[in-house]
Amino acid sequence: MSTLKITNPATGEALAELLADDATTVSAKAQRARAAQPGWSAVPLAERKDCVMRFRDALAAQVEALAATLSLEVGKPITQSRNEVNGLIGRIDFFLAQCERSTATETVLAEPGITERISHEPLGVVGNISAWNYPYFVGGNVFVPALLTGNAVLYKPSECAALTGQHIARLWHEAGVPADVFQLMVGAGEVGAALVAQPVDALFFTGSYTTGMKITQGVGRRIVKLQLELGGKDPTYVCEDVDVKTAAESVADGAMYNSGQSCCSVERVYVHEQIHDRFVAALVETVRGLRVGDPMDASTYIGPITRAAQVQVLQAQVADALARGATLQVGGHRIERPGNWFEPTVLTEADHTMELMREESFGPIVGVRKVGSDAEAVKLMNDTRYGLTAGVYTRDEWRAKALLSQLNAGSVYWNCCDRVSPRLPWSGWGDSGIGLTLSTYGIQAFTRPKAWHLRTP
Q1: What angle is formed at CA 343 by the lines to CA 339 and CA 345, rounded to 5 degrees?
Q2: Contact in structure between 7 and 16 (CB atoms under 8 Å)
Q3: Residue 418 confidence (pLDDT)
Q4: pLDDT tens, 72-100?
Q5: List 51, 99, 263, 417, catalytic entry
Q6: What's the burial of 183, exposed, middle or buried (CB within 10 Å: 0-12/13-18/19+)?
Q7: What tens digit of pLDDT does each residue of 404-438 get?
Q8: Would you call 273 a catalytic residue per the annotation?
C-alpha cells in the first residue's frame, strides 16, 4: 500500500507516515457502508443521540491532546486549536437539541378520509471530503448531523489533517458508532477522486473552487446530491462614524485569525475617505503587534502557512499589487526560517485590477481601498465572483441594514466579521458554493422528504 507523509508546517520536520487508501480500499469501504447504513438508520434516534453525546464528552475530556495534534500538523496556534475543539462541542449541543424537532414527521392535513404527512428519511451513504483549516468545525458540520439522521459516512479529511482525522474516527468508534458506519479514508487527491467515483447518495465537499469543479465533473451525469462549500473573497466596509481603533482591531482579527486561512477571513477592506488614513494607521499598528511564532506557544497569534505552495501564492499577489500601484504598509515577505511562514501583510491603494482584490489569498494578507460613498462601497464589494460573507462597520443600525441588504453574500455582518453560528445557515452565493450546513436547515440537508398520502378505506 502507499503511504501519506505528515509534515509539521512550522518546522518542515516529518511527523508521521500513515498507510493510505487506494481505489480498492475506498470501494470496499463504500460497500461496507452501504450494507451497514440500514441497520444504523433503524437504531432509535435516542440511541444515536447517546453515541453523539459520548463523542461530545470525549472531545471535552481530550481537548489538550486533540488541540496539540491539530497545531502540530496544520500549524494552527494552540490557543486557536483549543478554541476549535471546544467550539465543536457547542455545535454538537445545538444539533442534539434540534435534531428530533427538525426531522419529526409532520401532519400537514388531517381530514375525514385523508391524511397527508411529511417524513424525513436519511440520504443513505454520505461522502464527506473535508478541509484542513478547521477540521473539527468543517467536518463536524457534516458528520454530526449525518450520523444523527441515520446516514453512514465515508470521511476523507484533508491530507494536511489526517492525524486529526484519525482522532475523529477513533472517538466515533469509541462512542459506539459502528466501524462500517463511520469510515476514515486517508490520502491525498487520488483518494478523494476514488471516493467521488463511488455510488454514494450525497457528496459534501469543503475546499477550493478549483477542486470543487473537479468534483462536479467527477460526479458527471450521476444523480447525486452535491454540496460544495468553496472559497471567498470576503469584503468589509468601514464607515466614517465608527470608533476607528475598535473597528481596526476587529477587522485585523477577522483578516489574520488562523493566519488568514479561512474561507470567511476578511480579504478586502473598503474605508470611507473621511477616516481612511486614521483607520489604516490603526490597522497597521494592530497587525504589527500580532505575535508570530511557535504554534505550540500559547502567546502565538500567527502561525505558519499550512501548505507550502500557498506561500508562493501570497508572494505573487504582493508582487502583482505593488506592480499595479499598491503601497505596502507592513509585511509582504516570506519569513526565512524552516517551515512555511509569511509576514502579516497590509497593502493600501488596492484596486480591482489586482489579484489581491479578486482571487482568494488564504493567508495573513489584506488589501485596503479608499471609497467616497456607501454606493461606491457596495458596488466594489459586489464586484466579485464569490459571495460567502460581507460586513459593514457603522454606528447606524438602519444604515447597516440598508447596506447589508444590497450585498450578494450568504452571511452578512454588522460590526463583526469572521463569525459562524450553529443557529444560522452557512452558505455561499456564486462561486462560493451550493447548499448549506448548520441551522435546522443544515440538519434537514442530510435527509430527503417523503410525502405520505393516506386515505382510509
Answers
A1: 150
A2: no
A3: 82
A4: 999 999 999 999 999 999 999 999 999 99
A5: 263
A6: buried
A7: 999 999 999 999 998 999 999 999 999 999 999 99
A8: no
pLDDT band at 347 (very low <50, low <70, confident <90, very high): very high
Beta bridge partners of 225: 202
Write down the residue that cell numbers 481603533 correspond to. Answer: 245
* Whole-number Å distance between alpha carbons of 117 and 24: 42
Strands 389-393 and 411-414: parallel
The total of other beta-carbon atoms located within 10 Å of residue 121's CB is: 13
Catalytic residue among 73, 159, 229, 343: 229
Q: Where are the alpha helices (DSSP H) in 289-394?
A: 308-323, 374-381
Distance (Å, rounded) from C-alpha 237 to C-alpha 89? Answer: 32
pLDDT, mean of residues 213-217? 95
Q: Are 75 and 259 in contact (CB under 8 A)?
A: yes
CA 121 to chain centre: 26
Judge if pTM exceeds 0.70: yes
Is 121 catalytic? The answer is: no
